[in-house]
Design goal:
disordered N terminus, about 325 residues
């Protein structure tokens, strides 16, 4: 039997399109799994939506062979799926090792530790969590799409088979709604009092993080070294907070110093800024203000804005408050 040239061209064109889709899927996954760039600056959701489109396209092309019950498979399809799962198992192992390597390289490139000891500890960033789930769930389908040949019996899909692509705008809408209505999750930690002293005052470390939708809709965080001496409590380590230096306990009153006393900059102790992964899926801007009350208590407020779209469209504001009394007691936090 002679195969017509136009049939060969159609088959080659169709499979080249499928394999290009697999390569695009791999490229999007690498961008999501990598720690470089350190932040996607809100473009993470674009990568996720691109992955969803490619996932659905490959699923339709392979007739969702990876998820069909075994009873619906013939011998050839079962053999193809078994081979795909064996290959996908190895791909998951390689992918996890790549993610670990990316994390280490990203930390080295950023010039800091993997996790600041003074910050709220992060188990896994939302960006890497999505990459892992993508690898785990869609890996077999991508392998089947790559291995499947024209003899597999997979026919070109008509328009009626592509209705699942309607899930993409629904997914995007659900993400936008979740960022607006889901309550912020708060995690707060405190160090051990007395391990650090400044200007003769006792100090303690406080760190708080508020995340929306597990970080997929943004996170805000605050870490601060708070010192107190029985008269006042104040933030130490960030000149931008404008801590009144005349309340800082020093051997010589500030008014009698030849040169004004300045607050040192210690960003590892006190910082009011999002980490790079916090801005992967939305743009996050954050500012802090400090006030010393008449009773000597310190009132520190972090204002954060989560902007999923350009121009602050659909943005959401959240606050983190910390109030510490002049003797080191927490009056308000979160």
């Amino acid at each position: 039997m002679t195969v017509q040239p136009d049939v060969l061209q159609t088959t080659s064109r169709r499979w080249s399109t499928v394999r290009i889709s697999v390569l695009l899927l791999a490229a999007c996954w690498l961008l999501l799994a990598s720690s470089l760039p350190a932040s996607l600056h809100g473009a993470g959701i674009v990568l996720v939506l691109a992955l969803v489109v490619l996932d659905l396209a490959l699923g339709v092309t392979t007739n969702w062979l990876a998820f069909l019950p075994t009873s619906r498979l013939d011998e050839r399809q079962a053999a193809l799926r078994n081979r795909a799962y064996r290959v996908a198992f190895r791909l998951v192992a390689v992918g996890v090792l790549l993610m670990v390597a990316f994390t280490i390289v990203g930390a080295i490139a950023a010039g800091d530790n993997l996790q600041s000891i003074n910050a709220v500890p992060d188990a896994i960033s939302p960006r890497h969590l999505v990459a892992f789930l993508e690898l785990l769930v869609i890996g077999p389908t991508a392998v089947i799409a790559w291995l499947q040949d024209d003899a597999s019996g997979s026919e070109p899909r008509g328009l009626q088979h592509w209705w699942s692509l309607l899930l993409v705008p629904l997914f995007a809408g659900a993400w936008l709604v979740a960022g607006q209505v889901l309550p912020a999750q708060t995690v707060a930690t405190r160090g051990s009092s007395g391990l650090f002293e400044a200007y003769g005052a006792t100090c303690d470390h406080f760190a708080t993080e508020k995340s929306i939708a597990g970080g997929l809709a943004g996170s805000a965080r605050l870490k601060v070294e708070v010192c107190w001496d029985g008269r006042h409590a104040f933030a130490f380590g960030d000149p931008s907070l404008h801590t009144p230096m005349d309340i800082v306990p020093i051997p010589v009153p500030a008014s009698e110093l030849a040169a004004p006393l300045s607050m040192p900059s210690e960003p590892d102790l006190t910082s009011c800024a999002p980490r790079d992964p916090d801005s992967d899926f939305v743009n996050v801007s954050e500012t802090c203000t400090e006030q010393i009350g008449p009773d000597g208590s310190m009132h520190l407020t972090a204002h954060a804005r989560m902007s999923p779209l350009s121009g602050d469209l659909g943005s959401r504001d959240i606050e983190i408050q910390l109030v510490v009394s002049r003797d080191g007691k927490i009056l308000a936090e979160g």
